[in-house]
Design goal:
The complex is a heterodimer of chains A (about 120) and B (about 110). Chain A is built from no helices and eleven strands. The termini of chain B are far apart. In chain B, the strands form two sheets. In chain B, strands 1, 3, 4, 5, 8, 9 and 10 form a seven-stranded mixed sheet that branches. Classes of the chains: A mainly beta (about 120), B mainly beta (about 110). At the A-B interface, strand 5 of A face strand 3, strand 8 and strand 9 of B.
Chain lengths: ~120, ~110
């Protein structure tokens, strides 16, 4: 079955960077876009950006431009999200997500379990 | 940047109809997707492409679109439908996606 498994929780100091991995299985990794979404405690869902795993092309929402980098390693079907210049506002649960049904038209219905990032001095 | 607007909260009595709206200027041109999220759980896609019900989603969930507004309707609300609901869509370029702010559905 389609599955996305993310790396474990992280605790970072303000100003640091974090890099989260998302390993895909059960489908052709390069065939479908992979999105990144975050959710701060008690807050709503926030779309961060997406990557085309085949080409490596990316789009980032304006809020994270210059701070976020999405990448992938097709040899191991793994995507990465790196966020720099962390502040306490970046404390959140970070998810990767994808959709492999053509009917979804690049939206997503499969989520990674989430990686909790805590930013604290 | 592109925005989708949802009401923060909707309350409905058990067995009644709930309607949750989502508005955005690109809605007439881009499909909207609806997610249900219960506390401590991953979001679940309930409606895709404005009005298509995802596999396994009860028939009481439906979606519709009119102009710049899409609506998620839950007919005969059940206690288990109490959750946060988020709409998702892309901007007119299709390159950037955005979630609505979310609507907390309370079943009375």
């Amino acid at each position: 079955q389609v599955q996305l498994v993310q790396s474990g929780a992280e605790v970072k100091k303000p100003g640091a960077s974090v890099k989260i991995s998302c390993k895909a299985s059960g489908y052709t990794f390069t065939g479908y876009p992979l999105h990144w979404v975050r959710q701060a405690p008690g807050q709503g869902l926030e779309w961060m950006g997406w990557i085309n795993p085949k080409s490596g092309g990316t789009n980032y929402t304006q809020k994270f431009q210059g701070r976020v980098t999405l990448s992938r390693d097709t040899s191991i079907s793994t995507a990465y999200m790196e966020l720099s210049g962390l502040t306490s506002d970046d404390t959140a649960l970070y998810h990767c997500a994808t959709g492999v049904a053509a009917t979804l038209l690049n939206a997503f219905d499969v989520w990674g379990q989430g990686t909790m990032v805590t930013v604290s001095s | 940047s592109y925005e989708l607007t949802q009401p923060p909260s909707v309350s409905v009595s058990l067995g009644q109809m709930a309607r949750i709206t989502c508005s955005g200027e690109a809605v007439p041109k881009k499909y909207v997707y609806w997610y249900q999220q219960k506390p401590g759980q991953l979001p679940l896609l309930v409606i895709y492409r404005d009005n298509e019900r995802s596999s396994g989603i009860p028939e009481r969930f439906s979606g519709s679109s009119s102009g710049t507004v899409v609506t998620l309707t839950i007919s005969g609300v059940q206690a288990e439908d109490e959750a946060d609901y988020y709409c998702l869509s892309a901007d007119s370029s299709g390159s950037y996606w955005v979630f609505g702010g979310g609507t907390k559905l309370t079943v009375l």
